[in-house]
Amino acid sequence: MTDVLDEITPDETTNAPKAPEAQNWRQEEHDGTLTLWLDCADTGTNVISEAVLRELDTLLDEAKQARPDVLAIRSAKPGGFGAGADIEGFAGLSGEDAVTMLRQGHAVLDKLAALPFQTVAVVHGTTLGGAFELALACDHRIGVDGVKLGFPEIQLGLHPGLGGTFRLTNLIDPVEAMQMMLTGKSAHDSKAKKLGIIDALVPERHVDAAIAAAASGQLDHEGSFRASALRTRAARSLAATRMRSESEKKAPRAHFPAPFALIDLWEDHGGDSDAMQQAEIASFATLLDSTTAQNLIRVFCLRQRLKSAGKGEDGIAHVHVIGAGAMGAEIAAWAAMQGKRVTIEDVELAPLGQTISRATKIYERKHLSGIETRDALDRLMPDPDRLGRARADLIIEAGPEKPEVKEAIYSELTNEMKPGAILATNTSSLPLASLIDAAPDPAHFAGLHFFNPVSSMPLVEVVSHDLASKDTLKRLAAFTTGIDRLPAQVTDYPGFLVNRVLAPYMMEAMLMLDEGHDKVAIDRAALAFGMPMGPVTLADQVGLNICLEVGQSLRDGLDTPVADTPDWLREKVENGETGKKAGKGLYDYENEDPPKDPADDPDQQVIDRLILPMCNAAVEALRKGVAHDADTVDAAMIFGTGWAPFRGGPLHYAKVRGDVPDALRQLAEKHGARFDPDPGWDTLG
């Protein structure tokens, strides 16, 4: 019986009817326990919307009249307690409308917190944002093994807005609470228990006993000692100063006001929950009006759009990866982690063993449990005998970037692949048109371009060509979504989309170095704009040999050329100074570190020479139909490269700025035809 209970998912534990007139809640009562099951209509994920809170308000009034021994709030969704607030629901709000909605939400959670009997939130899986705030309004939180709780609002240019700022800082060590909110990082099950966020961590089969323990007072806890110690403003100010310093390093106030608004909020009102609550509402509404928040909310919506493009079944259970280098190993490890059966081959045995080691480290970083890691590794099978070729539904070729090598692999596959299987190449620089003739079946051949490292970079370019079938492309997009990556559907073009737009950033920096510009100043100017990495550092990271190959491949096929490659760059590569992995490239890594701090007063001319060619390339890609709309271009650059998300992507930035074609003409007059505005600017909406 215990084994059976272990397999029951949360949504299978109740057949309770919907609460009267409620679309998003179910309720049941048993032996003095009233359970409200959050079950948002028409979606697989709970979000804390206005409708959810309005219905909860009514249910809490009814519960207060019924006077159960304990009220438990649970989720009927197997994936988790809730994924946060309804972002799209408040994205268009501003000013007093936002304040009004926030106050209404606070009133509901305050009513929950004030109920005259024990209240318990049973949280499992993903418990983020507004859902976490709902749980914090209860007297107790019981975590089911595997739960993760967090406040990702900072990634939207916001901070918690439904009471999270004062409830979490009152519940646990306030410095730990602030770090969670400032970084957006989640606390996984055992850490959440250690911090005091949850009062008990149990397997699903022990939840009822834990609820009973909460009802009888056995889970009562004392307030945080550190919270008491930091009740004075003077004490908080010391901690706040350190927080501001750390935040400025990671997210400058000029671009990201939310961390600093949160720190101000806690420093000013941390000793007074009522005052902090009112200040939280006002601060959240102000941030919601900011350009940063609006752009980051837009980025959230772009993510959802990419995901929606990959809906449906992929029909891919078995993936076979050819090539166990860094990319192939990451692809294989990630696909196995996401539930696919994976085989991987290589011409050498050693990389296959390294693949397993790499996978283990990835699973550790992703907080997989011991059982989850074991299961993922069971699905990941080194295949030196290449048996997976004949059994796989999808073969991903991740061999060297040499046409003759790939053509030889495809020739072998012609008589080995099963009917209907898809062959996808992970090439980043070779045009698919040059590989089609060698593919076993062009209709079942396409590009599946992952970004390094796969475990951290969410984007995958699904690259089409004239002979690829719609079904193949649809299945590859669905496969990408199914392994928790974001599919950007693009057409065959030099560099595809992301590398085509990114290449001018690095190549222009090389030419600026040739002109005598300081490499540190170049990188710091790019960081000041908001790029995650300066172009000189990025070139070293990618590898100067790869930069040479990409520059050459793009130079031969583009309407607008990239900067010429300086002779000294080729000499560096020939001398083995290929970048960070070699210990020396544009930076000498034994003696110097690339800058991490943005310039305080960057040279706008330097920024324009780095950034505007990317905007120009994005317009070219859109005009050529490499991507079908501007949103896809912006999303691909943000999720494929980390392109300054608070600016909304290169095309959105250009649209807001307004003068980019004129600025490009001025640069062209000074530096050459590579800055000539693309004809697509004339029709860009």
TrEMBL record:
Keywords: Fatty acid metabolism, Lipid degradation, Lipid metabolism, Lyase, Multifunctional enzyme, NAD, Oxidoreductase. Pathway: Lipid metabolism; fatty acid beta-oxidation. The gene is fadJ_2. It catalyses: a (3S)-3-hydroxyacyl-CoA + NAD(+) = a 3-oxoacyl-CoA + NADH + H(+). Residues 1-10 have a biased composition (Acidic residues). It comes from Pseudooceanicola marinus. GO terms for biological process: fatty acid beta-oxidation. Its EC number is 4.2.1.17. InterPro entries: 3-OHacyl-CoA_DH_CS, 3-OHacyl-CoA_DH_NAD-bd, 3HC_DH_C, 6-PGluconate_DH-like_C_sf, ClpP/crotonase-like_dom_sf, Enoyl-CoA_hydra/iso, FA_oxidation_alpha_subunit, NAD(P)-bd_dom_sf. GO terms for molecular function: enoyl-CoA hydratase activity; long-chain (3S)-3-hydroxyacyl-CoA dehydrogenase (NAD+) activity; NAD+ binding. Residues 567-580 have a biased composition (Basic and acidic residues). This is enoyl-CoA hydratase. In the central section; belongs to the 3-hydroxyacyl-CoA dehydrogenase family. In the N-terminal section; belongs to the enoyl-CoA hydratase/isomerase family. Residues 495-589 form the 3-hydroxyacyl-CoA dehydrogenase C-terminal domain. It is an enzyme of class 4 (lyase). Residues 1-27, 562-602 are annotated as: Disordered. Residues 318-492 form the 3-hydroxyacyl-CoA dehydrogenase NAD binding domain.
